[in-house]
Amino acid sequence: MKYDVIIVGAGPGGIFSAYELMKKKPELKVAVFEKGYSLEKRKCPIDGDKVKSCIKCKSCAIMSGFGGAGAFSDGKYNITNDFGGTLYEYIGKEKAIALMKYVDEINCAYGGAKTRMYSTTDTKFKKICMQNKLQLLDASVRHLGTDINYIVLENLLADLKEKVDFYFNTPVNSIEKLEDEYKVVYENGEAECSECIISVGRSGSKWMESVCSDLDIPTKSNRVDIGVRVELPAVIFSHLTDELYESKIVYRTQKFEDKVRTFCMNPYGIVVNENTNGIITVNGHSFEDPTKRTENTNFALLVAKHFSEPFKDSNGYGESIAKLSNMLGGGVIVQRFGDLVRGRRSNENRIKESTVRPTLAATPGDLSLVLPKRILDGIIEMIYALDKVAPGTANDDTLLYGVEVKFYNMEVELDNNLETKHKGLYVIGDGSGITHSLSHASASGIYVADYIAGNI
Description:
Helix content: 25-40%
Structural class: alpha+beta
Strand order of the largest sheet: 5-13-14-17-12-20-18-19
Strand content: 25-35%
Number of strands: 22
Shape: globular
Oligomer: single chain
Low-confidence stretches: none
Mean pLDDT: 93
C-alpha cells in the first residue's frame, strides 16, 4: 500500500494532523495506524460490580485507541505556554497560542460550543496564593468534560473516515527509511509513504525509543513526575473550581526546595485506574453533565524528578515505584491523610468510616512504604500549604491514592518544523517529549500538517 502521508497513532496529535491535511489537501492519500480500538469499541471492563479493578487487557481501552489517552480524560484544553510542554520553544509563543486557539475553535465546531471557557485573568486567587508561598499559573481552559469530549471525538471521527484510511488494532512494529520514502511495518503487512508523522503519546515511549535507536535519531532524557491523587469533598475546593475550574498551583518545598504542583483537577469527578505498559497507576475524570457528578473533587500532586548523567532511564525509575505499589496493593493503594502523617497504614474500617467516600475501589495501605521519603515529604508539605487557601485539604479523612506517575518520552531531537534529521519524518505530541497536554499535542499536529501541506 502506498500513501502520501502515514500517521502512527490516533491520539490528539494524530487526529488534528489528519484533520488539517483533510482540510488543506483533500486530494492526499492519508492513513492512520493505531494499536488500540476505534472509539465506539473502547470499553473498560471495570464496572464497579463484577469487575472492580484492572484486569490488564491486552490493549488498555483507557490508554489506547482513537482519541488516545485523552479520550476518557476530563477533556481540559489549556491555552497557555506556562505549562503543558515546550512547543513554543520550537515554533514561537504567539504561533503556539494561535494554534491552541484554533484547536479550541475546531472542538467547539464539533460539539463543544456550549461548554465553558475558564480563565485565571484578574482572579483574586493569585494574590491569595502568593501570600501563602504558592504560585497560580496563568491559563485559559476549555472544559469539555469526559462526556462532551467523547462527542467531539465521535464527530471528528465520522468526518475523518470520509477522507482518511484508519487501521485500528494495528500496532506498528517498526519504521524503515527507504531512499525517498518510509516503510511502516505492522503484523500483517507493510505500507509506504513519502511523509511519516509519529504521534504515539506517552504510552508509546518504549516503542519510540526503539524507533529512535533504529534510525539513529538523537534523544535526551526527560523528567518523570511522581506523586499521588488527592480526593476530598468538592466543597473544600469549590471557591477555586467554580471560578477557575483547573487551578495549576506550584509550591517550592522548604525542606528540599523541590517543586510540587497540582495537576488534572476534576471537580465533582471520579478517580480511575490507568494501565501503562502493564503497570497500574491512577488518574481522574469528571463530566460536564450535572447528573454524572459526584460529591468529591480529585487532583494530582506531583513532584518532578530530573536526572543527570550517568542515569538516563527516568521512566524506568517511575515504573519501579509504580510496580512496588502494584506489588503491595495488587494495584492502586489508598490511604487517609491522617493515617499517613501518624505513620500507620489505612485499613478497610478506617476507609469505611471516613467522611470522604472513595470513588475508586483501591487497596487500603501505607504509601510511605512505596514513595521515596523526599517525594512524600514534599507532598505532605504541599497539602499543608494548600490547606491555607482551601481549608480542609489537610483533614484526616482526605484520601490519597498512589501512585500517580506521569511518564514523559525522552526528548527527540527535532528542528523548528518538528522534523527529525530524516527529511519527511516528524514526531509530534507527547511522544516527542516536547508536549505534555491535549492542547499542545493537538497544536503540534496542526503545525506539522500545515508544513506538509505547504511543501508536499
